[in-house]
Amino acid sequence: MSVRRILTVDQDLKVLKQKSAPVARVDDDLRALMDDMLETMYDAPGIGLAAIQVGVPKRVIVMDLARGDAPKEPRFFVNPEIVWTSEELAPYEEGCLSVPEIYEEVQRPATVRLRYLNYQGDAVEEEADGLFATCIQHEIDHLEGVLFIDYLSRLKRNRAVAKVRKAARDEAA
Ligand code: NI
């Protein structure tokens, strides 16, 4: 397992805007990618990561919503699809490892039903609400090349990208 570089909007916007392709088969190579993604996410640290964020345009997501010192609860989603969304929306102040240090409120369906293949390649269908619903929708957006800042006004989005760019410059200086 190894920690990979996480792409950010200031340097890698073109890759992050790319649409990811479905995975044909859950095999050991894919599990090795998922292991690296999980380690990269824990290292950051973050609660969700899509493969495109490490530059791999495949429909793969890792997530762990366990808080603080609670035991780890890694989850893996291959070819995830949302098959139902509630009409009720819920706001959440979102952040993203590809848009570091920026947090803005986004409204999304409060509950969703999703289908995916797990780490073993078994088909799973389940309902998500609360933070799980927010996070899985945010991560599935990444597979379509959509970032949470795309939901903000153009002014706020440009300001966010400028802030990330400035932080990267200050760090390099
Ligand atoms: Ni993100």
Annotation keywords:
single chain; 173 residues; alpha+beta; Peptide Deformylase; five-stranded antiparallel beta sheet; two-stranded antiparallel ribbon; 4 helices; globular; binds nickel (II) ion
Strand order of the largest sheet: 1-2-3-6-7
Extended strand count? 7
Low-confidence stretches: none
Instruction: Tell me, rounded to a whole number, the average pLDDT.
Output: 96
Name of the CATH architecture = Alpha-Beta Complex
How many structural domains? Answer: 1
CATH-defined superfamily: Peptide deformylase
Question: What is the CATH topology?
Answer: Peptide Deformylase
Radius of gyration: 16 Å
Intertermini distance? 31 Å
How does this structure look, described?
With 173 residues, the protein is of the alpha+beta class. The strands form two sheets. Strands 1-2-3-6-7 form a five-stranded antiparallel sheet. Strands 4-5 form a two-stranded antiparallel sheet. It starts with 8 loop residues before the first helix and ends with a helix. Strand 6 (111-117) and strand 7 (123-129) form a beta hairpin. The chain has helices at residues 9-16, 28-43, 130-143, 154-172, and strands spanning 48-50, 60-63, 75-85, 89-96, 99-109, 111-117, 123-129. The protein has one domain (9-172): Peptide deformylase (Peptide Deformylase, Alpha-Beta Complex). Bound molecules: nickel (II) ion. The site of nickel (II) ion has 5 residues, from helix 3.
